[in-house]
Amino acid sequence: MLKFVKKHMESIIGIEIYPIISLIIFFTFFVVLFWWVFTAKKEYINKVSQLPLND
């Protein structure tokens, strides 16, 4: 099965760019998320963390 898929993938022109694009999107998402976590205001974090308990 893997040989069948590998042979088809090798026949597609320009397919090698898709893993690179996926890695860039994945890395960018987590860098932005990491930046947001460290720059979020403490008041906002506390307010959001109390939302499930407000009922």
Task: Write up what this structure looks like.
Keywords: Membrane, Transmembrane, Transmembrane helix. The chain crosses the membrane at residues 12-38. There is one protein chain. The chain has 55 residues and is an all-alpha fold. It has a domain at 25-55. 75% of the residues lie in helices and 0% in strands. The protein has 3 helices and no strands. The chain has helices spanning 2-11, 17-39, 42-49. The chain is elongated. The model has no long low-confidence stretch (mean pLDDT 88).
Write the H/E string, N to C: HHH
- Specify the biggest β-sheet: none
Uncertain residue segments = none
Q: Rounded to an integer, what's the Rg over CA atoms? A: 21 Å
Task: Please state the average pLDDT score.
Answer: 88
Task: Tell me what portion of residues adopts beta-strand conformation.
Answer: under 5%
According to DSSP, the number of beta strands is: 0
Helix content: over 70%
> What is the approximate shape?
elongated
Annotation field: number of helices? 3
Instruction: Determine the structural class based on helices, strands and strand pairing.
Output: mainly alpha
**Ends: how far apart?**
53 Å
Keywords: Membrane, Transmembrane, Transmembrane helix
Protein name: Cytochrome C oxidase subunit IV
Considering the chains and any ligands shown, give keywords for the structure:
elongated, 75% helix, transmembrane helix, transmembrane, 55 residues, Cytochrome C oxidase subunit IV, membrane, mainly alpha
